[in-house]
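Methods — Computational structure assignment.
A single polypeptide chain was analysed. Its primary sequence is given first, followed by the predicted tertiary structure written as structure tokens.
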Amino acid sequence: MAGATVNHGRAVLAHGWLPEWLPAATALYWSSLTFLDPLAAVLLILRPRAGIALTVAIIVSDVAHNLWFVAAHPLHGSLVEAVASSAFTMSQIAFLVFVAATAPVAWKDARQPAPHD
């Protein structure tokens, strides 16, 4: 989530908060991740269950939105070709798979009371 924060922060610095060349909802969503990603990172430490839930919501919605965006605004070839040729998109999908695989275990462990001395 910290890495995503850096990526969204760089995008805001390069293009502004709500780039006019993007659909308004996309610009708002991507800019909002500049705040939501670090919030999720902090919550993973301070309130693990809230952090897990927010992380899942962010990565699921981000991958879904980005796949829609690539399909709606193709730069080249088919959706499959565009996704497969994008290291950025593939890394997001890999992170989604990681989160999907680990979130249930982390959620269960977050229920466990801390050991007492």
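Note: Residues 48-72 form the longest helix (25 residues).
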